[in-house]
């Protein structure tokens, strides 16, 4: 008599892996705050670092992660929402509640990234088709 294996309670699926990678990136200003206490950077530099990560680094990273996700796995409605949700702990730990609306910005950046990834994948397929090197896509 064979038993059916039990399913685990929680499984980290593919979109969640990308969201966890972004969550690690969103915590980078916390590392910068540790450098202030070590005397490596000043408090003014810490403020500029936090603003730069909110406005430049995090959206660009979300676009890149969204493009890689869409390239490898196709379009997903839920993945960009996970990217935005991944920012919420960082918003409450590193920043303050005024940074919470940036989660929606990162959701939009995730959709832009998915569009970029799908566009690049289709462009590469057209180039391969025209050149005669048609390899089967994954």
UniProtKB/TrEMBL annotation:
Give yes or no: UniProt keyword Transmembrane. yes
Q: Where on the tree of life does the source sit, at the highest rank?
A: Bacteria
**What keywords are assigned to this protein?**
Membrane, Transmembrane, Transmembrane helix
Transmembrane annotation, as ranges:
48-71, 78-95, 101-120
Does the keyword Membrane feature in the UniProt annotation? Answer: yes
Question: What is this protein identified as?
Answer: Uncharacterized protein
């Amino acid at each position: 008599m064979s038993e059916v294996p039990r399913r685990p309670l929680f499984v980290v699926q593919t979109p969640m892996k990308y969201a966890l990678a972004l969550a690690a990136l969103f915590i980078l200003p916390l590392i910068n705050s540790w450098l202030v206490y070590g005397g490596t950077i000043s408090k003014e530099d810490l403020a500029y670092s936090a603003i730069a990560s909110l406005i430049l680094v995090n959206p660009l990273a979300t676009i890149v992660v969204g493009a890689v996700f869409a390239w490898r796995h196709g379009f997903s409605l839920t993945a960009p929402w996970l990217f935005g949700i991944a920012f919420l702990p960082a918003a409450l730990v590193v920043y303050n509640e005024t940074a919470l609306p940036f989660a929606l910005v990162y959701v939009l950046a995730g959709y832009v990234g998915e569009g970029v990834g799908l566009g690049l994948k289709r462009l590469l397929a057209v180039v391969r088709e025209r050149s005669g090197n048609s390899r089967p896509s994954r």
